[in-house]
Amino acid sequence: MAVAIRLSRGGAKKRPYYRIVVSDSRSPRDGKYLEQIGTYNPMLPKDSGERVKLDEDRARHWLKVGAVPSDRVHRFFDAAGILERAPRNNPKKGEPGEAAKERAEEKAAKEAEAAEAAKAAEEEAKAAAEAPAEETAAEEEGAGAEAAETADAAEEKAE
What we know:
CATH architecture of the domain at 3-80: 2-Layer Sandwich
Number of helices: 3
Distance between the termini: 131 Å
Low-confidence stretches: none
Strand content: 15-25%
Radius of gyration: 41 Å
Structural class: alpha+beta
Number of strands: 5
Order of helices and strands: EEEEHEHH
């Protein structure tokens, strides 16, 4: 008989409460079990000592007999120092899908185009700022000459 250490759900709707039980792996989740070795109340704060209660001696006994803990129960055992759990690493899990990668590439291309357009607009603004200064200086010189000619013409008419 394959023996599993797993959670059996109890409690009301939207108010879960679990028993940590040792049961035949073929029995239903909330069905018949061999022994209850603890409780888990996920409604309590994570730092609460009442959140997970374990009978460590019985847990060690069942592990020696060959019971296999579920992933969640294995985490509880690791936290209690009963059974060490190797950390898992799945780098592909966090990797975005193909469509997300394409959207990211399109967004990067649009940002690059916008940056180029902003740079070009900035250069045009600098060039426009420099050009009017030169033109203004030339216009002032030309305006000064025109004003002198106008003044001379006015004097000649007055004579």
